[in-house]
């Protein structure tokens, strides 16, 4: 199995697990919280069938990557992404982030530039700034994140059950767009992740990307469900689309947070059209 080393903790290397399949222009997939690169199943196959080289990896603390006790803020996570891109010597790549992965894409482009990047796609986006403040009145109240942290501390596994239901809007889409098995698949990945990583990623969601976004100088696709219960559409996709220089916003009607599964056909069509344009 392929790994790259991105750091060290005490006597052990910090390794990222990645997969590199197909041929053609490279597309790098950065997964959401609290999942792994396996969550890109429907996109990976569609991209390879369309003739792209697809690289996906597990964020530190998740999946088959190392589980250090530190590094779950966006400066480190973007550095991990940069080390992967540099190690594989990728050129003219498209970065595709989902949920928390959109933060890596945003911070990477702001810190490391677009010399190796052709385009970016942000699906169920986290930027520009999720927290409600005086100068960000459409954000989410701090109490929501305090409750999430408390729930994770009290019973992480029970919290993940509730979260995965909200992730897919299970009460509305069960039986039509999402099955019990898909929800269980997500729960299994989340439950198997580092408890430290699961908890430490939550404060990273409150990163203020408003100074990063104007530095994105590549064409950008936004895909976001208007029924997203995790990262509300009006708090994320709307302000982000207004801040980007070259942006195409696709609103998935009735789409939940996990639209890469529930609305995969629409997401894949928009993504492939964007890559070809």
UniProtKB/TrEMBL annotation:
Keyword Transmembrane helix in record: no
Protein name according to UniProt: Arylesterase
Keyword flag Kinase: no
Keyword entries, A-Z: Oxidoreductase, Peroxidase
Domain AB hydrolase-1: 26-262
Gene3D superfamilies: alpha/beta hydrolase
InterPro entries, A to Z: AB_hydrolase, AB_hydrolase_1, AB_hydrolase_fold, Epox_hydrolase-like
Protein family membership: Belongs to the AB hydrolase superfamily. Bacterial non-heme haloperoxidase / perhydrolase family.
Pfam families in the record: Abhydrolase_1
Molecular functions per Gene Ontology: peroxidase activity
SUPFAM superfamilies, sorted: alpha/beta-Hydrolases
């Amino acid at each position: 199995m392929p790994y790259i080393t991105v750091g060290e903790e005490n006597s052990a290397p910090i390794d990222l697990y990645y997969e590199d399949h197909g041929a053609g222009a490279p597309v790098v997939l950065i997964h959401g919280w609290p999942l792994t690169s396996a969550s890109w199943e429907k996109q990976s196959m569609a991209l390879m069938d369309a003739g792209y080289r697809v690289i996906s990896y597990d964020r530190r603390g998740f999946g088959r990557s190392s589980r250090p006790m530190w590094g779950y803020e966006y400066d480190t996570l973007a550095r991990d992404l940069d080390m992967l891109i540099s190690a594989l010597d990728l050129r003219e790549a498209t970065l595709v982030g989902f949920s928390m992965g959109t933060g890596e894409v945003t911070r990477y482009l702001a810190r490391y530039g677009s010399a190796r990047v052709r385009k970016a796609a942000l699906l169920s986006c986290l930027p520009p700034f999720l927290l409600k403040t005086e100068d960000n009145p459409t954000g989410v109240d701090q109490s929501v994140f305090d409750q999430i942290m408390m729930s994770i501390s009290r019973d992480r596994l029970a919290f993940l059950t509730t979260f995965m239901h909200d992730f897919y809007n299970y009460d509305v889409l069960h039986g039509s767009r999402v099955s019990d098995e898909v929800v269980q698949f997500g729960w299994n990945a989340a439950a198997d992740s580092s408890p430290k990583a699961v908890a430490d990623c939550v404060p990273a969601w409150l990163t203020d990307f408003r100074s990063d976004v104007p530095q994105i100088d590549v064409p950008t696709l936004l895909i976001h469900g208007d029924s997203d219960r995790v990262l509300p559409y009006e708090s994320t996709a709307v302000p982000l689309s207004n801040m980007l220089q070259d942006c195409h916003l696709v609103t998935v009607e009735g789409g939940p947070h996990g639209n890469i599964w529930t609305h995969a056909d629409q997401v894949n069509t928009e993504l492939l059209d964007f890559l070809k344009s």
